[in-house]
Amino acid sequence: MNLTAEPIIYGLVFIGVLVLVEGIYLTMFGRSISLNNRVNRRLEMLEKGGNREEVLEKLRKEMNQHIKGRSIPLYSMLADKANKAAIAFTPKQLMGIMAGLCVFAFLGLTVGTETSLSVRIVASIGIGVGGVFMWIGHKAKKRMSLLEEQLPDAVELMVRSLRVGHPFTSAVQIVAKEVQDPLASEMGIIADESAYGRDVGEALKSMAERLDNQDLRFLAVAVTIQQQSGGNLAEILAGLAQVIRSRFRLFRRVKAITAEAQWSGKFLSSFPLLALVAINLGDPDYYDPVLDHEWFIPACFIVAAFLGVNLIVMRILVNIKV
User: Fold this and answer.
1) What angle do CA 298, 76, 17 make, to 5 degrees?
2) What is the pTM of this model?
3) Average pLDDT over residues 181-202
């Protein structure tokens, strides 16, 4: 039995692509762009001597550039996630990085494997583009999870600020200074926009639509209604904070209950690929008798199509809406 290291090399090249794109990102924009940083990025940019208007313009450009990129063919599939992740790369830079990573993956596969040229080209494109998609998806999921977790505490901080006599815009500024990213920079943008004359309710609504977050929509609607009809905003936001916290607990409970089904779906979806890798590791010549058969290539495409359908179906089955 001859063992081959090619599947391991493919995996190492893919991991190398993920590490490389993260390294490029942190090198270009600094440690402050990482969500693990204790000081939010907007404050750090201001402390480094940045003008308030310039910082606002830069952050707004970063957070809105991917919405404009939806018109670019193929990039539209990535634009929403890149927007939620607030990726500082421009769409052109991201596409250039994808191309560079494809070249990097091709060179790695050329040095480490002996597969045919066509297979290396297809695999390199899949690794380069797929690596960027996975990286952005992870960033978006992490950022939105942190934002949803921060929101109830931020609304309660607004309530305490309102009860001691601060106006709502000052309450937003306090949240922008006291909490961490990602919510801090988002609220900081709203505070700066309101300081330059934009309606705070409109700014909140714009942020909610950009991030596609229902709790932020509740906050925007509550503030807008209070501005139009009056009322005790502190009491309204106190009730909203309880609703958001209850929704968050419910989502966590549903996630815990459905965790087994989700992992079962992931296992069933990945099992055919894991079996293929195991077969090639155990017996590299297993498929040699049928490689030249006229139906081998069409059968591979049919199996790949069924795997794609399986991924979609399993995702739908375990994606429970609350």
Assistant:
1) 70
2) 0.73
3) 81
